[in-house]
What we know:
Residues 177-207 are annotated as: Disordered. By secondary structure, the protein is mainly α.
Amino acid sequence: MAISADAREFVRLCVPLTGFAEFDLYGTGMAQLYLDTARAQVGEKHFAEFLDVWKVAYEAGAGVEILSPTQLETARAVTYLWYTGAWPRMAPAAHADLRREMANAEFVVAPEAYVEGLVWRTFHGHPAGAKPPGYGTWSVRPPRPSTLAELREEIGVPRPGAPDEDEDEAVAVPAGRLPGPLLARGTAPSTVPAADGVRADVQGGDA
């Protein structure tokens, strides 16, 4: 599929959303399809406004803080699309704000989109039944995760005025910005209190 100028700009702006370089995004072969899907689901006018605001934020080295709630939901949906190959069900408030006369339901945009999902690359795996890595590769230790500093350098996200970061930079990332359930972020299993019902059952059993 030919890549339009709009799709090239879309890929550039998706780099900071996905954490993958342009090379990787082009390598999926999904850029034009994903752009067309996002435009159809969000609406061409609303999606163009989202890209304009996100472009300003990206080029200024800012984050998603300047996005409106609906634009933030659009950013989440686009990121989800790149990672899974599916357009997600949007937050009801955002879907209502967009005034889209279509079902607000998740769907896979194309059979090949599942195979090309970025989620498989994040843990150096492969989709079931496709893209096998080769005989015996299960025994090879995967590379260590990149630090935030290395990731920024690889994908070229601007960060004006930021100090040099080292290998321990991830420690300084606020817990609210990390993925996963809040309870799981830096919490040792032994420090998590048991639910009252479980504690009562255990105490009753000991008695």
